[in-house]
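Hi V.,

You were right to ask for the full record rather than a summary. Here it is.
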Amino acid sequence: MPRRRGDETESDAVPEGETGTVDFRETADEDRLPWLEAVEEESEGSGPGLAKLIGAVVIGLLAIGLIVGGLFWLGNRGESEADGTLIAAPEGDYKVRPDDPGGMNVAGEGDTAYAASAGRTPEGRLNTDTVPEAPVARPEPAPKAAPPATAAQTPAPPPQAPAASGGTIQLGAFSSQASANRAWSGLSGRFRYLAPLSHNVVAVQSGERTLYRLRASGPDAAGICRRLRVAGEDCTIVG
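Predicted structure:
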């Protein structure tokens, strides 16, 4: 029976020399366009979740609260309520001299010379009865030289004037002559009525020590000595 054109089968469309089986899936895959293929969704980056963010905020607030509370506690723990109670002073002396003051021992410390040089009133007293009084040396007038027979007579120089009369007073005894002279400078500067007197320093031996007595001579020495005593100074009439 003759076949019509529309009656061709799939086996009739296969060329000769080829198998009669055709894989239509491979043909469909080869004919598929690349831009029409589905694109896989990219996975989003892993970020912190909402729960983690809320937890971090809560932890931060708790840390701030702990810091503020700690500072408040440190600032208020030393405060104490004052009740206005009067604190009485302890009985006894405010300052007590120690039995052993310590320090370095300085030779001559406490002598009258140190007090006088510092401008304080000396408190020492010298017992003049135990030491013999040395008389004040008075200069003798120089002898007149005999004029030569042939030379013209020239007047001889006048003899040295003796120490001013009127009495001698003693103003203190010191450990050195320099200390005695400084004491005289201080006294004559404070009491102007000592200016008419002439002072001298006499060295005397007292046991194993040498003392230097400050004396002054002049008119009305006794009256000046009484005025010094009234002012609180040491003064003794010795001649």
